[in-house]
């Protein structure tokens, strides 16, 4: 058994771990990053990037299929599944290469390969070959898909998760997708637009991260209109049969039975903490055995252990993982002079079409917290620029605090949501009021004019006396 003594040991070389490494290195050279799997990160290898590559192909197919609306005739197009998947894999490999190159440029003394687990608060065992004595530890072990009990045993290789999709050589004929969350919706719509027959099995009418009933209603209209989407299924059973899976489920009291090539499970992800033997780390764990992490320091309680990324967050997103990696790595490096780091305004974007954006505090959380707030809406059906582009589907809800007029958050499904989401998150981070936001420029004709309509609606409800003049459709058409 080799022995190693370091100031900072980082478990996991994903996006959070890599950022933690760079931050810790600013304080000490005695750092080691321990990785049990392949280098390249979840984001580049099986997450953000390959999923967006698949969506890009689906968008191209959708644009061709819908070109007739603009008077553009496209005769006889076909989706070449092998070519689609080849581009997804090739471009994905390019992104992975950049990450792997970065890791390969690190000195060998900073890297260790193998599965890490705690044997004592300051001691990690890595595989069966090395024992690391670490003054501080950063846990950045990411997350893995949650599978319904017994399905892996019953379905074998017909049960797939996101990782499997991106190594396909060709597109299958049909898939059932369990879970209408972010991954389920993004992949279902992309596969459907590429000609795969899709059955998306949701639960309790949930649709991605949305909580605002009016925005959810608009989202339901979008996805049930386009996909084989069953938003409120119960009693879902899956069993293996010849060349695929038999899926039985109930919706609205009616039983359905379908045969599909694969069952894709996208029913949420769980932090990779189970095999770390955290009970040996001397940490305070909560009632379900999970450590509590300070959002601004990344530190677990008063301990020498820090956590970053999907392993310890309720916002498992790439930019959050990178930020958390930085603050955990920095604090592990400078320990015991741990310092808090400010966090950014919450922002989430789903790359469906139309896209979904969540900014700040959502409708359900505002309601649960008893905040006095008002809501402004815009429906995109008659929004000028959106209609010009035939992307006039969806709804935006913006929330403002009663009394102060402070902007609090937004939920949206609609055109350009990735851009509108950023504008709103930046305004939120600057603590702007709705009136201050309305004082910013809005160009004509843009989708942002739809945002202005929603903000004006909100302003009217927040401060009836100081309301802005009504929209003038004749002055600037379709805003
Ligand atoms: C399909 C999909 C699409 C996504 N799309 C987006 C998107 O568009 N935008 C966005 O912001 N986010 C997206 N995400 C989320 C984003 O990918 C994650 O939030 C981010 O990658 C998390 O980074 P991480 O460093 O925490 O984990 P990871 O990158 O998973 O790194 C964790 C590392 O720890 C290693 N490890 C685990 N246990 C041990 C151990 N005991 N010992 C040693 N090593 C260990 C693992 O092998 C892994 O390499 C997506 C995720 C998925 C799955
Ligand atoms: N665009 C992006 O930023 C992006 C894209 C993909 C993933 N991600 C990240 O990855 C995380 C994980 O994604 P996810 O989609 O796996 O999780 P999720 O939490 O977004 O969605 C899981 C969904 O599955 C449902 N569900 C759970 N068990 C079920 C069952 N047995 N049957 C039917 N439905 C069931 C849940 O109610 C939920 O709606 C996301 O929270 C997100 O942060 C982000």
From TrEMBL:
Residues 349-454 form the Pyridine nucleotide-disulphide oxidoreductase dimerisation domain. The keyword Flavoprotein applies. Residues 7-325 form the FAD/NAD(P)-binding domain. Transmembrane segments: none annotated. The keyword Flavoprotein applies. Its cofactor is FAD. Keywords: FAD, Flavoprotein. Signal peptide: none annotated. PANTHER family: MERCURIC REDUCTASE, PYRIDINE NUCLEOTIDE-DISULFIDE OXIDOREDUCTASE RCLA-RELATED. Belongs to the class-I pyridine nucleotide-disulfide oxidoreductase family. This is Dihydrolipoamide dehydrogenase.
């Amino acid at each position: 058994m080799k022995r190693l003594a370091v100031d900072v040991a980082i478990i996991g070389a994903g996006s959070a771990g890599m950022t933690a490494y760079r931050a810790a290195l600013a304080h000490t050279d005695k750092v080691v990053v321990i990785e049990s799997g392949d280098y390249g990160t979840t984001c580049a290898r099986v997450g953000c990037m390959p999923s967006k590559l698949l969506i890009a192909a689906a968008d191209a197919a959708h644009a061709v299929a819908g070109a007739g609306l603009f008077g553009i005739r496209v005769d006889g197009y076909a989706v070449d599944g092998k070519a689609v998947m080849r581009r997804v894999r090739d471009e994905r490999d390019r992104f992975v290469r950049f990450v792997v190159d970065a890791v390969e440029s690190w000195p060998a003394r900073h890297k260790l390969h193998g599965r890490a687990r705690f044997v004592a608060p300051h001691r990690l065992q890595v595989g069966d070959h090395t024992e690391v004595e670490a003054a501080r530890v950063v846990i950045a072990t990411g997350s893995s898909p949650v599978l319904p009990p017994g399905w892996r045993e019953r379905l074998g290789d017909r049960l797939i998760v996101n990782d499997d999709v991106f190594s396909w050589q060709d597109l299958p004929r049909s898939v059932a997708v369990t879970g209408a969350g972010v991954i389920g919706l993004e992949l279902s719509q992309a596969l459907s637009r590429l000609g795969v027959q899709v059955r998306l099995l949701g639960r309790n009418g949930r649709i991605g991260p949305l909580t605002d009933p009016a925005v959810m209603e608009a989202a339901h209209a979008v996805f049930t209109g386009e996909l084989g989407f069953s938003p409120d299924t119960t009693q879902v059973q899956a069993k293996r049969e010849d060349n695929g899976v038999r899926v039985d489920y109930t919706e609205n009291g009616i039983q359905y039975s379908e045969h599909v090539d694969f069952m894709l499970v996208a029913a949420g992800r769980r932090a990779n903490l189970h095999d770390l033997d955290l009970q040996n780390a001397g940490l305070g764990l909560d009632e379900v055995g999970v450590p509590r992490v300070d959002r601004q320091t990344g530190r677990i309680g008063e301990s020498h252990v820090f956590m970053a990324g999907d392993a310890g967050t309720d916002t498992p997103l790439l930019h959050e993982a990178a930020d958390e990696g930085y603050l955990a790595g920095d604090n592990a490096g400078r320990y015991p002079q741990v310092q808090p780091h400010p966090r950014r305004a919450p922002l989430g974007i789903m790359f469906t079409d139309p896209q979904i954006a969540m900014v700040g505090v959502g409708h359900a959380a505002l309601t649960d917290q008893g905040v006095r707030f008002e809501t402004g809406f815009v429906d995109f059906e008659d929004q000028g620029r959106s209609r010009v582009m035939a992307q006039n589907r969806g709804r935006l809800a913006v929330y403002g605090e009663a009394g102060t007029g402070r902007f609090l958050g937004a939920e949206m499904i609609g055109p350009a949501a990735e851009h509108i989401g950023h504008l709103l998150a930046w305004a939120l981070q600057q603590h702007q009021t709705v009136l201050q936001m309305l004082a910013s420029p809005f160009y004509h004709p843009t989708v942002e004019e739809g945002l202005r309509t929603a903000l004006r609606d909100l302003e009217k409800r927040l401060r009836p006396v100081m309301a802005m003049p009504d929209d003038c459709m004749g002055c600037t058409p379709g805003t």
